[in-house]
Amino acid sequence: MDPRNLRKVRILVIDDDEDDWLIIKSYCSKIKDFTCHVEWASTYEQGIEKINENAHDAYLIDYRLGSKTGMEILEYAHPERRRQPFILMTGVLDSELEWRSLRLAAADYLVKGSFDEIALARTISYAMQRKFIEQQRIDQLLELNHAKDEFISIASHQLRTPATGVKQYLGMVVDGFAGEVPEQQLTMLKQAYRSNERQLRIISDLLKVAQVDSGKLKLHTQPAQINELIDEVIDEQRSTLQSRSQSITVAYPNKTFPTANFDTHAIRMVLENIVNNASKYSHEGESISVEVTDDKDAVAISVIDQGVGIDEHDLPRLFEKFSRFNNPLSTKVGGTGLGLYWAKRIVDMHGGRIDYQPNTPNGSIFSVVLPKSLPQNSELIHTS
Ligand code: ADP
Known about the structure:
Order of helices and strands: EHEHEEEHEHEHHEEHEEHEEHEEE
CATH architecture of the largest domain: 3-Layer(aba) Sandwich
Shape: elongated
Number of domains: 2
CATH superfamily of the largest domain: Response regulator
Largest sheet: 5 strands, parallel
Oligomer: single chain
Low-confidence stretches: none
Bound molecules: adenosine-5'-diphosphate
Structural class: alpha/beta
CATH topology of the largest domain: Rossmann fold
């Protein structure tokens, strides 16, 4: 709600000192610009409980709260989730504390005894106004982001149909269905066919990401054997691996084949992307191995390559959208920088994780860790 139109402001005071609470309460009763409804929480725990009710327009939080501090409240109510201003109060001016509260995105910092009802009213209304404008901007950005996702989704859908048509007709001409094609033209047509395949891959990546970002993607768990899944992934990648003279081996734990519940179609695509990357970012002739480890709670599938590896300073952006890093092969191999972003979102939806580790002396290890606790036939939906 726009604070300029507010007549009634609900404030929660979190303070373990009853005298201080009574002083603030009396200031609040004297505020003329708006009616102040103040409530008191005398402990950290009570404060957290009331914050979770989300029923106040602003919070006044004392630094000292028994064995806890107001900083812990600021940490608990993460700045990105806060919709109301959190104002910290201390008994004495302490610039170190003031900086810490700023870093935790406190809306203001008040020293008890140094303000009256007029200053308090001003602090509260300015803080609410700033928060309101910030929220308006966030809402605008979210709307814009949503419109962008919609645009990408619609544009990719529209592009996919004609691009698929081009692939079919080119394929037919290349395969000689329209008569013999002279050698030079055939070479050019094959080049066009490969370019069109790349184009379709980009469209498919964009569509997958648009679907996951829109929150509309639903996954369904079903029992699957890891070995069957990995065999399918390797079969699918075999011609690519052969064209680069790369070998691939798989090791299962104790020759037993772990089973778990997950969306097989989605996890297959995740593994395909990781195995394909292991091949893309390795030189010709280098080998790849897949290792499966089976714990009580989780199954881990690690894809180990001896390729170009990833620079340490690139790692924080590894799973971000459109992240592509400079390496000796990056200009030679194509990519959108969307594969790992999508893969992480899918594995997150399963309650799992993707870990990265450098391989020694060269290369990368990507491990997909999937929990075994997911029930059969359950629906996985977005939580973020
Ligand atoms: P791309 O389509 O570019 O391959 P990904 O999202 O799959 O996109 O990967 C993002 C980036 O991470 C890649 O561009 C590459 O720089 C790096 N990367 C991914 N896998 C590997 C790997 N096995 N070895 C080295 N670099 C990798």
